[in-house]
Amino acid sequence: MPYIYFSQTNSHMSNVIVNRVIDFLKKFPPFSFLSPELLSQVAKEVDLVYFEKDEFLFQKGEPAKNYFFVVKDGAVKLTDFIDGEEQTIELCDEGDVFGVLALLGKRPYILNAKANENSLVMAVPVGIFDKILLENSQVSLYFASGFASGQVVVRSDLSQTQKVRSLLVNNSHQNGLLLFPGQAAINYSQPVIQCRIGETIAQAVGKMSADKVGSIVIVDENNHPQGIITDKDLRNRLIAKGLPYDTLVEKIMSYPVITAKKDLEFSQIYLNMVKNRLHHLVFTEDGTNQSKLIGIISDHDILLSQGNSPAVLIKALQDSSDVHEIAKLRNQAEGMLIYFLENELAIDFIAGIITEINDTIIQRAIHIAKSRHSADFPEVCETPFCFLGLGSEGRGEQLLRTDIDNAMVYEDVPEALEENTRRFMHLIARDVMDILFASGFHSCPAEMMANNPEWCQPLSKWKSYFSHWISKPDQQSLLMASIFFDFRAIAGKAALAEALTAHVYEQISSEKIFLNFFAKNALLNPPPLGFFRNFIVEKSGAHAEKFDIKLRAMMPLADAARVLVLNHQVVGVNNTFKRYEKLAELEPNQAELYKDAGKAYEIFMRFRALEGLSASSSGRFIKPDSLGKLQRQLLKNAFFPIDEIQKILRVRFQLDYFGK
Questions:
Q1: Can you name the residues that pair with 458 across neighbouring β-strands?
Q2: Do 382 and 485 form a contact (C-beta atoms < 8 A)?
Q3: Who wins on pLDDT, 242 or 144?
Q4: Do strands 385-389 and 488-492 pair parallel, antiparallel, or not at all (unpaired)?
Q5: Confidence tier at 420 by pLDDT (50, 70, 90)
Q6: Which residue from 73, 249, 382, 413 puts its CA 20 to 30 A from 11's CA?
Q7: Could you report the per-residue pLDDT of 608-652, keeping only the tens digit for each?
Q8: Domain range annotation of the chain
Q9: Contact 283, 294 (CB under 8 A)
């Protein structure tokens, strides 16, 4: 029988021990979320209970007690009998909370709890927490998300798990970078200054002048937006060309007009404007140009509200031809990345902005390189080419300036021009990479970069590469495929990348066995947790005792998503969490799992980026002991979809029967 170490009897002793209980509990979630007053109330109700080694606190199937537990000293293991043998499911040490079924539904216990060594445990009465759960959203979210030890994490919990990230950080107050996290109110202009198709420029300018605005939306008879005229259009398309003021508006308007729904999140609208280089975004009832006009927002409106913003940075990069200035601007982007992460902006938004910045740097680098070398290669300087991002950059997931993988593909030319074309393309690739290195990006250790002549080739050569990898899927070919199959057109002639994609799918269709090999390869990375649900860490070397979040958490999900979208012949979706979104559409019966896999990947990206920024590293290796208990449990919850996704690969590609 357990020995009751302390119960609330002697008042003087009670006050001393209550203070010690408060000092202990306030270090650990969910007690760390309580106000001092509430924590004091809880501490007064806590009993300290001593258990001898191997003594059961409770057993599977027993009715839930009217209290839950927190380990004070020692350790408690949660076990289950599997095939007649007792197996440890989880080991709870100092500060771990367990036995919470008394708090959540009062169901029978689903595991055994046994003292792994002589242990002192705090028993917290359920009654004191009933009111707290109703009134404190942080505490209820902690339990609802499956953070207590021994809870069975179900798929729906992962959406709650994402919300808990906000409990882990203190928001910064750099108002100059404020980006309206979440569903922000968008102050768009309404009613919109407009005129009809068939009206003259004079009529449109009169309306613009009367309302002192720099743009006017052109609508049809149904009030559907058809185009837009700005001050710039008037200068370049009317005055510069000497057209009369009775010219019809449709002759000089910009069209088609880009539209959106007004109830979209600000981040989606903002990213839409950045990606499409829009100065104005028009809002309609259903988000298309086939419904009524209801509002408009300009980049000027955004900049006034934002102060320092990605749009300003991207515009500065687009206008720069100085390598040192480009490097300086990329350094500024790091500050924005830190702010975005600290303030819990959505990862897809952050990744979209950073990808746009990186792409803009590459586009400017190509412009600079062509300006340097085109005069020396007049016969071949207009040969179409496409700069490809590979790996994380190809997937639009490179938040940190880690090592970069990329390549160049150019159009095949007549034999007489091959040597000059090759020399010109290699010079372009060399200069682009030099600018990227000057901007703080790291060289790929395996030299899978465009400045390596092997990866700067004409389209025919690239097709032969992919044909070889697909038709002869040995270990080296599968490694190449896992890197190069995520290629994305960043600059140049996108049709070359599209032709390569078409070739890839054509080859896979004729070599169907390739996907079985590729799926087998996707299962090579070991699971993230060991037998006792501890993080599997590196055993030796520079990263000993650290967890490899890239190898053990991110790559299994990225590799699986790649195989599954190839199997569905999905084109144009490279990003891992967007791939899982697409898979959820394509396979409704697995939709919840795929959505959770995407959410898990976003969580891993955030953890890695924060680690990299704090440690000035790639963020790949994380010391589990440096994480708080809530952070460790957050990661463990996010590991759940990995095993389930890998099970799908095993079944779908019959990998249990597939040869080595």
A1: 410
A2: no
A3: 242
A4: antiparallel
A5: very high
A6: 73
A7: 999 998 888 999 999 888 887 778 878 888 888 998 999 999 999
A8: 11-148, 194-306, 345-510, 516-657
A9: yes
